[in-house]
Amino acid sequence: MNKTCVCRYCGKVFTSWHERSCCNDCLKTEEEEFSKIENYLKRYPNSNAIQIAEGLEISPFNVVRFIDEGRLSIRKGEFKEIKGRKK
Ligand SMILES: [Zn+2]
Fold this sequence. Notes:
single chain; about 50% helix; binds zinc ion
């Protein structure tokens, strides 16, 4: 069954047989963003999602999506800290 998805880059609504957060038009953008994050983590291995987003001037939400999708592994403790921050 097809699922309705919203592209995180251009906001386009599209359908896909599995849950996706990026439309076909933006796949290249996503790949570029992912390799930027990878390079950033090579330089600064202990960064959390917020630091990566600030360092690369991209949305922290996009960084978190890569983690949720299992494409990025950031140390769990740091990731939880961001999610649980309530002050
Ligand atoms: Zn798109």
